[in-house]
Amino acid sequence: MAKPDSVGISLPKPYCSACGHDLTGAVTASACPECGRPLVEVLTRGGASVRAVRTAIGVAISLAVTALLVVILLTTGAIP
Ligand SMILES: [Zn+2]
Question: Which pLDDT belongs to residue 62?
Answer without folding.
Answer: 86
